[in-house]
Amino acid sequence: MSWLQTLPLKRRSFRAPETIVECNVKVMGGSMTSPVEFVKHWEEVAVAEFQQDSSVLVLTISAGIAIEIKLSHYILHQHSIMQLQNDKTIFCFNVKFCPKLFKDPYNRKQRISCRGTRYPEFGLLTSFCVQFKNESPITSRLSWYLRYVDFAIVHTQLSVSDQVQEMNLEIKNFDNAYAWRSLCCQGYKVTNQLRTLGLEEILSEECKYSDVFTTLADHLAGKPFFHLKEEMQDAIKLTESYGFDNKVPKNYTMVRRAVLTPSRLILLSKEPVYFNRILRQYNADYFIRLVYRDEDFEKISGMKYRGPQHLLEDMKQHFINGFTIYDRHYEFLGCSNSQLREHSFWFFSSYDGITAEFIRQSSGDLAKERCVASYVSRFGLCFSSSWNTLTIEEHEEVRFEKDVTRNGYCFTDGIGKISKRLAAKVAKSMDLNIVPSAFQIRYGGCKGVIAIDPSLGENREIIVIRESMKKFESNSKSLEVLQVSRPVFCFPEDYQATYSFTNSGDLRKAMYKMPYISSS
């Protein structure tokens, strides 16, 4: 194995030339199993278009599908491999994220998903080899530009081989199967080397290797190529040395997570998640938190492309049909308003007769909600991260009152009351040393803020719920707290303080001597 690396060019200003186009360009997709070995999974003839002003190489293949390879360090790995032949030059790009696909090759505004095309496994490709003619203007220009933007051009003799049949492993444990699929989600750079591991012997042992696969997947995510057998041995040693027995913080639980992109479903390891009402009532092991992202893990915006209908339709199928991992089928459950803004959703796998529909019906009476947005918002109250404090019965400790209104204005919208004694009990259940003056709560189908009202009596334990706080009927009697009031530091840059400085000389001199103002 020999590498010859060229130095990057010194930066200088230049005028970007017009777009360079070359036809009948050979494109191969696959993975690098070593610095000099490329495994080919598919091959196409494309029209190559290099747009230097936007740092993009566009490869238009059959059916009018355009592959956009962004020539940036965020998308590509540092080393770009270049092989010189008699009359041809091969560029090999190792990608960190799957290139984006477009249906319209001229303006590249209609994004599409690889699912439903001739390339359903396009998202598993981790390397692309593009072959140009030596005398083509795009060859010299592309080589110069890569060095100009500080990529390392490596000259080597590249060995190209065809793919081999993938291994079919029989895994009997869901945790191992999930971690194994999470490892395979890294792409062909992993699956092309599996036959060198002797995994049949590893999986036949009476051991839980989900931690090993999880560690290995995390380590391989940022590497363009590697020796998989050595990486596996390092992952086993690391897992045996440190393990995964970290204590989960109080009021947290471990939940699996996944990222859905237009090209693939990426399974990730468990992460600590703050409890919500649903996770407290059911087994958290059967939940998965799914986030919808673009190929580069950025949120997909409708303003960026000319109507992402194809992507939305692909996303819709996952919400309607769900997805399967080993022996579990996950169905869409719901999300909170904040999670919806982040394109994050909860999916659930049925167990012991408990289904996603059963959870929705058991959470409260939402039959009156005919608007989809209102339904999602109301049911999303159950997914708010909260601290479970006390169980409060309505007929004894809860009083419902009308809102305070005058001249068409509501002065108590979402604001209720709590007695001082009950507030102290809530604070004690949360291990707080000081009793807050207000609590942001969820109680059944009610949401809002309750503040301490001394007029409710010193010895009474009662909360007052306003009509504006009640969103739907629910049988849940647990008082859940999202946040509590706490001191807030106000600095002299605040508007009120600045206004005082400019209108009162004595006050200004006095306040200048204060380091800060604290208010609660």
From TrEMBL:
Catalysed reaction, written as an equation: RNA(n) + a ribonucleoside 5'-triphosphate = RNA(n+1) + diphosphate
GO BP term (any one): siRNA processing
Keyword Transferase applies: yes
Segments forming domain RDRP core: 260-487
The enzyme's E.C. designation: 2.7.7.48
GO molecular function annotation: RNA binding; RNA-directed RNA polymerase activity
Top-level EC class: transferase
Source taxon at top rank: Eukaryota
Record's GO cellular component terms: nuclear RNA-directed RNA polymerase complex
Assigned keywords, A-Z: Nucleotidyltransferase, RNA-binding, RNA-directed RNA polymerase, Transferase
Entry's family note: Belongs to the RdRP family.
PANTHER family named among the record's database cross-references: RNA-DEPENDENT RNA POLYMERASE, RNA-DIRECTED RNA POLYMERASE
Protein name according to UniProt: RNA-dependent RNA polymerase
UniProt organism field: Magallana gigas
